[in-house]
Amino acid sequence: MYYLYKALIFIFSKMSLGALQRFAGGVGTLAWYLLKERRQVAKVNAKIVTLSADSDKIAKESFRQTFMAYFETAYVQNVDQDFIDKYVTVEGFENYKKIQDEGKMFSLISAHIGSWDLSSPITQHVCGFKLLVVGRESNNKALNRLLDDIRNMGDIEYATQKGFLEKAAQYDRVGCAIGSILDHGTTKGDSVVAPFFGYRVPTLAGIAALSARKKIPMLPTYLIRTKTGFKLIMHPPIYPNQELKAKDRITDLVTRMNIDFESIIKEYPEQWYLLHKRFKRLEEADGTITSNRLYRP
Asked: How much is the pTM?
């Protein structure tokens, strides 16, 4: 299976970006009709994040956009300065410059929105810092091996949450960053509960804990798909509140991080990963955690 995946990635990497996105969008549209359970999840999520009468239309478009993100992983190896010049515009670069001028270390945070796998190599090319990306492993071993191959083609290091601490010490200096995508579900042990679109949801807290402990800012960065390529968006950095106690400082960072995620998702709801059960686990008013309440038929 690994070699089949590898052959497909090679073919996709040789396609033009436009052709790849059109093909991926077509696969996404087909998936909308075939994947009944995920279609329902996307509809529920779209209603939560948009409160719009067009939420079903947004949910359908999210399938196209999500499959584009899947297939664009093959393009990681194609990211170079020519690619940046041709396809990428940048908004909010002054927010990165602010951190750079302060001479601070920082962490990079993002969400599953737009082209999330291309975000890391493009951000590193634009800004010129060294980057360690922390992510989760797939349950598919062949896919994990392939993703490791693809991601390690660039000058970015990747670590799973299990191997994160071993590599993190190498990035504990100015000119380096540790990044992660933090909007997916999580377990009790590695999360804090924070508001997100009106619900209290467990949210990954590792990067926030690092930021609080090291007294460094988190820089929200997103790669949004446009008609001509991509727009790299950098929001103002989120600084830890040193007046709070350590535990409260982490919760405060996660809460403000979720507010930032909400702002970009509201602007580009169809490019968020609506297929994922982000609201699967919820903290109820009595403090108990329920599962799948919003997604039950």
From this structure: 0.92
